[in-house]
Amino acid sequence: MIKRRVITNHQRGPEWKRHAEATRSVEREQVLLSAVDGTSDAETMLGVFMQPPVYQTAYGCGYGTLYTAIYRPADDASAELIWPRRAGRNPARHSRRARGL
């Protein structure tokens, strides 16, 4: 286990240079680190995730973003899936009872 604030397509460092370049892994990590240092607001972070280089559109190469998720385990144990090509959001809430707590 490693302590990192963000993770992209590599954990300790890019192991396969061509893959890291194709997925813009290091660049996306830098953008995410800057964003995390600048805010903890979920909506602001969502904006970062919905823009290149974090948001990927190279579907033909297998590097496209399908959806983005916002997890709120401390608030209400919810997860919200944001599908870029669909209007609206899909909340998924789990009650304490449903989780067996």
Strand order of the largest sheet: 3-4-5
| Record field, number of beta strands | 5
**How would a crystallographer describe the biggest sheet?**
3 strands, antiparallel
Strand content: 15-25%
Helix fraction by DSSP (H/I, runs of at least 4): 25-40%
Estimate the mean pLDDT confidence. Answer: 80
Assign the structural class, choosing from mainly alpha, mainly beta, alpha/beta, alpha+beta, or little secondary structure: alpha+beta
Low-confidence stretches: 95-101
Write the layout of secondary structure elements.
Elements: H1 17-23, H2 25-38, H3 42-49, E1 57-58, E2 63-64, E3 68-72, E4 78-82, E5 89-93
Antiparallel strand pairs: 1-2, 3-4, 4-5
Characterize the structure shown.
- The chain is of the alpha+beta class.
- It is 29% helix and 19% strand.
- The protein has helices spanning 17-23, 25-38, 42-49, and strands at 57-58, 63-64, 68-72, 78-82, 89-93.
- The chain has a three-stranded antiparallel sheet with strand order 3-4-5, with helices on one face. Strands 1-2 form a two-stranded antiparallel ribbon.
- Strand 4 and strand 5 (89-93) form a beta hairpin.
- Mean pLDDT is 80; it is low at 95-101.
